[in-house]
Write a structure and sequence with these properties.
Shape: elongated
Helix content: 25-40%
Order of helices and strands: HHHHHEEHHEEEEEHHHEE
Strand content: 15-25%
Distance between the termini: 63 Å
Radius of gyration: 25 Å
Number of strands: 9
Strand order of the largest sheet: 3-4-5-7-6
Length: 302
């Protein structure tokens, strides 16, 4: 049967083929894992029995992470980005979310793994338990073997041992020096990512780490500190798509002083006079069309 990448996957997941079984079909020797289908089965079960409660929980989560007007900007994002957002929010709901069941608030993971939850295999149950137990944390990417593995170091705890994580697709785009929010899961004798990933650019990653430290200082006495820090990571990741990136501190190599970038606007009354005056300055280059630069020769030859 010929399947287009944008067709619904025939496995029944409800996802597009390119976001589901395409990679596996292109690599037929990929081993099936004991936890396969855990997330899909959990969401299908919740949607069938508690659709209204689940939708209300997603709406509350979005309100916690971003303002409503910011979420409206997501309509302009590309399909792959929107799919990544949906994957991350769905996993957060299974790991951290709460829904109303018969008027009482219950943690989603406890409900799924309770006696009235869906029928799960041992591997699927273990996967959902790990999602609930392993917090979303921020890591420094220190080493990458593309298509194979990466090494992660806890961005907040310098004493924590590095973790080698087997990862195929993510390691093709991640680079050492980047920071990544994720849940690290144990699978047999090695570690893997849970599926939801929150990559940060080098401009934003350090700011996120500072926010996490501030959260620890403010709420360090709370038992749900990990939950609060997870919200910080998720919110900061989403803000990358709707907010301007922070301006990095730029240092002048000659003086060693921070560069203060200032823009002033002037009304030019005599363009010919201005051009003539600047043209008489030996250290000024340019013209009216492209603008002018003033340059000085430094001791280091710059």
């Amino acid at each position: 049967m010929s399947i287009s990448q944008n067709d619904i996957c025939p496995c029944g997941s409800g996802k597009k083929y390119k976001h589901c079984c395409l990679h596996q079909d292109q690599n037929p020797f990929v081993d099936h894992k004991a936890h396969d289908g855990a997330v899909e089965k959990a969401i299908e079960w919740l949607s069938a029995r508690h659709r209204k409660g689940l939708n209300a929980a997603f709406a509350q989560l979005r309100n916690e992470l971003l303002a409503e007007e910011d979420f409206e900007k997501f309509h302009d994002l590309d399909e792959d980005t929107l799919t990544g957002v949906q994957i991350n929010l769905t996993e957060w709901m299974l790991a951290e979310g709460k829904i109303l069941v018969q008027g009482a608030s219950r943690r989603v993971s406890d409900y799924l793994l309770g006696p009235s939850g869906p029928s799960l295999t041992i591997g699927q149950r273990d996967w959902l338990q790990q999602l609930a137990q392993r917090p979303l944390r921020l890591y420094d990417v220190t080493d990458v073997v593309p298509g194979v593995q990466m090494t992660l170091c806890d961005a907040l705890n310098g004493d924590a041992a590095p973790v080698v994580v087997l990862e195929r697709s993510g390691t093709r785009t991640l680079k050492p020096g980047m920071q990544l929010g994720c849940r690290v899961m144990r699978v047999a004798e090695h570690f893997e990512l849970s599926g939801a990933v929150y990559p940060f650019s080098m401009l934003t990653g350090r700011a996120v780490a500072d926010r996490l430290r501030a959260t620890a200082d403010e709420f360090g006495h709370l038992p749900d500190l990990a939950h609060e820090q997870g919200l910080v990571i998720a919110s900061a990741w989403l803000q990358q798509f709707v907010a301007q990136p922070p301006m990095p501190t730029m240092i002048d190599a000659y003086s060693g002083e921070p560069m203060l970038l200032i823009t002033d606007h002037y009304r030019v009354l005599d363009w010919l006079g201005l051009a003539s005056a600047l043209g008489g300055c030996a250290d000024v280059f340019g013209d009216r069309q492209d603008g002018w630069d003033r340059r000085i020769d430094c001791e280091d030859g710059q």
